[in-house]
Design goal:
MutS, DNA mismatch repair protein, Chain A, domain 3; binds adenosine-5'-triphosphate; globular; about 900 residues; DNA damage; about 45% helix; 6 domains
Length: about 900
């Protein structure tokens, strides 16, 4: 604690009247309020000794969000000040919870020693400053980040007219990208990135608003004044940041892109309070624009999350075999933006294919990668001044692992285990691992190896992290300290003998430093004449008495001095090590990228081998030929559940040779949705560069994938199921082109039968005649199957089922031709509908199928003709000609003697036993 008054005590003892009335405020309250204003909409963590304290509204909000005690301290304007606090040593936990709850936090530290403040007068307040704003998009601590996901901060420049731009950065790893966007493409860009925080202009124009409204709730939107996006300022800021004269050095950027990049840089500078992370130069996303996949398609295909929001069960979880956080992040990048550039796709395929062949080598590579620290994130923390000795060690270990990987790969490249030349992409990654263009990492590694001790503290200021032998000055100071400690051990013996007290000890605490302690019963002896010159009394406790000696205090100050000197020396050495490391930031970041790339390729190779995936042929044709395709997720689920094998199915939509639209019919549960999705997923995997779950695959590059599978209510936006479905169908019919792949499942089912059928009918015709795309269309409207006679590129296929003992058995096989019927009622029985309901449904169905209800008159007849439901349930099945019943009818109970009655009963029993 700084010894000054607590801010809550300041106000006043009843004197302060207005916030702005500076005279009425104590110095500390004035300081607090000034800093509070700088914190804007963030909660202020105000450092007081070992705690971060929160006051006023901040305290109320934080206490509720963290479920911690809200107390009251002092008064302000006549009211008690609400207060809560979190301990400094565990504040990251609380911080993480607040950020997850959508808050931003300003961290205000004491930036001078309380002793310094005291020199200015006893009432002076320790200087405090905001050292950082913690926001969802600017996290760097491992404890606040998910190791396997990116943490993107994005900025949208949304001009009133024309195209805008979206820039995004991962502050924790230094990635920085920018791309042009329009209000139409913004949705799919944001869906692909899933930024944690998005900066937008304060009042974006109409079209942008709609796109922003459709954004997921995981993104925290931070509006900024329009001036924040000023192009001229942006250019200057970026040139300053990269220390270049003009941005041309990094490529050509549109004005809007520069504005978005500038806003992003300004916000990072603002939140990191002047310290910038090691941002890589800005770049446009991967060569060969990405395949467009809009937000609804991503959700319906469950690419990174299931519709329930879990990672488990998503495509990403099913194919992720990476062993490092950086690898997992890169894989999700690949999935966010599958490529359309055929060469780029082939380069990835080559690398994976090479690693598929190199099985033992792949095992070694993965083992090493698994033990490699996350160097991109360690580097970023160091650049922001938020790192520690362990981050330096992480870089040392990461770079060492990279070197070992290179040795392995070189061995393989030189032909030892493999004949094929190593894929170009892997060779490039190897150059990055060794920093070949930057002269290698040998010097830096030598330095770090020599400098760092074996056991490292988390924080540099705890000291003790520089290895002995690295710095003679430090060793000497440490020697003095250690020597003094040895002398103290000797003194203890000496004092014991002099005083004749065996139980005498020399101990240490933070208040007294070193002191002599003896049991309280010796107090008189030690304070008595023979010893009073030697032992100077310091403290008497219940059980012990404590003394110092001139010699001991001398040694104590020497130890303190040498500890301070050693720490100061270590801090200087630490700064120097950071500087030398950060001088290689670009090369280290490239090395981290190389490691991530090898991890992704090795992971996909592992997947290909383990799950029997095949390398697809991707070219610029209009082919879509999947032989023996499987659903990557359902296949694994079925195998895990021990439900037998997944049944592979072919899909041929090649435009030139085959019908390019398939109308898929078949009963519920027969596997229509699975078949539809699996083909879209195979296309996405193929264009990510991955191998695919099939026997053979040939895909002419697809520029957009659209998938609508089972629309659901979007009540939050005031849209019914049907409305959602229509909006989404409209988007497809308006946007799909001849290179698109469209997957539509049961369009029109959310409304009256005839309306739904008509809409599905018209949509199918539109896809065929206007969009001319490749597509799969699943429906329960059997009437649509007739369309194939009119539309030459439309083919009917159906999911096969067999009936066995009155039940339906799903074969999960796709066959040519339409389904014969729906089997809906049979599926209802399988699902456990009460047998009365099943029987009743069967009756209704038979009449409907006989065509007796084509009009409302027919419907009335149906209602009249069919027995009432309750009657249907209650009425027992007639058993007219049962011999037992006949025998019963013949009995005249009044004419039977008791014995005859008993015999009749036995006879009846016998008849029923015979099944009569
Ligand atoms: N090819 C297959 N091999 C093995 N099991 C499969 C296959 N396809 C689907 N299944 C299994 O059948 C279940 C139902 O599949 P799916 O949801 O695709 O049916 P559907 O025809 O779309 O049904 P609905 O019309 O009710 O939506 C899946 O969850 C899966 O377990």
């Amino acid at each position: 604690m700084d010894g000054s008054a607590h801010p809550s005590e300041i106000g006043d003892k009843g004197k302060a009247t207005a916030l702005k009335d500076a005279k009425a405020l104590t110095p500390m309250m004035a300081q607090y309020l000034e800093i509070r204003e700088q914190a804007g909409d963030a909660l202020l963590f105000y450092r007081m000794g070992d705690f971060y304290e929160l006051f006023f509204d901040d305290a109320v909000k934080a206490a509720a969000a963290l479920d911690i005690t809200l107390t009251k301290r002092g008064q302000h304007q006549g009211e008690a000040i609400p207060m809560c606090g979190v301990p400094h040593h565990s504040h990251e936990n609380y911080l993480a919870r607040l950020i997850r709850a959508g808050f931003k936090v300003a961290i205000c530290e004491q930036t001078e020693d309380p002793a310094e403040a005291k020199k200015r007068g006893s009432k002076s307040v320790v200087r405090r400053e905001i050292v950082r704003f913690v926001t969802p998009g600017t996290l760097t601590e491992d404890s606040l980040l998910e190791a396997r996901s990116h943490n993107f901060l994005a900025a949208l420049h949304a001009p009133r007219t024309g195209a805008g731009a979206l820039a995004w950065a991962d502050v924790s790893s230094g990635e920085l990208c920018v791309a042009s966007v329009t209000a139409e493409t913004l949705g799919s860009q944001l869906a692909a990135l899933a930024p944690k925080e998005l900066l937008t202009p304060e009042a974006p124009g109409g079209d942008w608003v709609a796109a922003l409204d459709a954004m997921g709730e995981e993104t925290c939107v931070t509006p900024q004044a329009r001036t924040f996006f000023d192009v001229a300022n942006a250019e200057e800021r970026l040139c300053d940041l990269y220390k270049v004269q003009a941005l041309d050095a990094f490529g050509t950027f549109a004005r809007s892109e520069i504005a978005a990049l500038g806003a992003l840089a300004a916000y990072i500078e603002l939140t990191q309070v002047g310290r910038m992370p090691a941002l890589k130069p800005p770049r446009h996303p991967a060569r060969g624009a990405a395949m467009a996949i809009d937000a609804v398609t991503r959700t319906s295909l469950e690419l990174t999350r299931t519709q329930r929001g879990d990672r488990d069960g998503s495509l990403l979880a099913a194919i992720d075999r990476t062993v490092s956080g950086a690898g997992a992040r890169l894989l999700s990048d690949w999935m966010a933006g599958p490529l359309t550039d055929i060469d780029a796709i082939r380069r990835r395929q080559q690398a994976i294919a090479w690693l598929v062949e190199a099985r033992p080598l792949r095992g070694d590579i993965r083992e090493r990668l698994a033990a490699t620290p996350d160097i991109a994130r360690a580097l970023s923390r160091l650049a922001l001044g938020r790192g520690g000795p362990r981050d330096l060690a992480a870089l040392r270990d990461g770079l060492t692992a990279a070197r070992e990987l290179c040795v392995l790969l070189h061995g393989a490249a030189e032909g030892a285990p493999l004949d094929a030349p190593m894929a170009e992409m892997l060779q490039e990654a190897m150059c990055d691992l060794e920093a070949q263009s930057g002269g290698g990492f040998a010097d830096l590694l030598r330095l770090l190896n020599k400098a760092l001790a074996a056991d490292l503290p988390l924080l540099a200021r705890d000291g003790g992290f520089i290895a002995t032998g690295f710095d003679p000055g430090l060793d000497e100071t440490r020697g003095l300290r250690d020597n003094a400690r040895r002398i103290i051990a000797g003194l203890e013996d000496q004092y014991r003998q002099k005083a004749g007290i065996k139980a005498l000890k020399i101990k240490h605490n933070n208040v007294l430093g070193y002191f002599v302690e003896a049991p309280a019963s010796y107090a008189g002896t030690l304070m008595g004449a023979p010893h009073c010159d030697l032992f100077i009394h310091r403290q008497t406790l219940a059980n012990a008495v404590r003394f110092t000696t001139v010699e001991l205090s001398d040694l104590d100050s020497r130890i303190v001095r040498s500890r301070d000197t050693a720490l100061a020396r270590e801090m200087a050495l630490y700064r120097d090590l950071c500087e030398q490391t950060l001088a290689r930031a670009g090369d280290i970041a490239a090395c981290a990228d190389g490691l991530a790339l090898i991890d992704v390729c090795a992971g996909l190779a592992q997947l290909a081998e383990a799950q029997d995936y095949v390398r697809p042929q991707v070219d610029d044709s209009f082919a879509f030929e999947i032989i023996g395709g499987r659903h990557p997720v359902v296949e694994q689920t079925v195998a895990r559940a021990g439900e037998g094998a997944f049944i592979p199915n072919d899909c041929r939509l090649t435009r030139e040779d085959d019908p390019s639209l398939w109308l898929v019919t078949g009963p519920n549960m027969a596997g229509k949705s699975t078949f539809l999705r699996q083909n879209a997923l195979i296309a996405i995997l193929a264009q990510m560069g991955s191998f695919v779950p099939a026997k053979e695959a040939h895909i002419g590059v697809i520029d957009r994938v659209f998938s609508r599978v089972g629309a659901s209510d979007d009540l939050a936006r005031g849209r019914s199921t049907f409305m959602v479905e229509m909006v989404e169908t409209a988007a497809i019919l308006n946007q799909a082109g001849e290179r698109s792949l469209v997957v539509l499942d049961e369009i029109g089912r959310g409304t009256a039968t005839y309306d739904g059928l008509s809409i599905a009918w018209a949509a199918l015709e539109h896809l065929h005649e206007i969009n001319k795309c490749r597509g799969l269309f699943a429906t329960h409207y059997h009437e649509l199957t007739a369309l194939s006679s009119r539309l030459d590129r439309l083919a009917n296929v159906s999911m096969q089922v067999r009936e066995w003992k009155g039940d339906v058995v799903f074969l999960h096989e796709v066959a040519e031709g339409p389904a014969d019927r729906s089997y809906g009622v049979s599926v209802g029985r399988l699902a456990g509908l009460p047998s009365a309901v099943v029987a009743r449904a069967q009756e209704v169905l038979s009449l409907l199928e006989e065509g007796k209800v084509a009009s409302s008159a027919g419907l009335a007849t149906l209602v009249d003709d069919l027995p009432l439901f309750s009657a249907a349930v209650a009425r027992p099945k007639p058993v007219a000609d049962s011999p037992a019943l006949k025998a019963l009818a013949d009995i005249d109970p009044d004419s039977l003697s008791p014995r005859e009655a008993l015999e009749a009963l036995y006879a009846l029993k016998e008849l029923t036993r015979n099944g009569s």
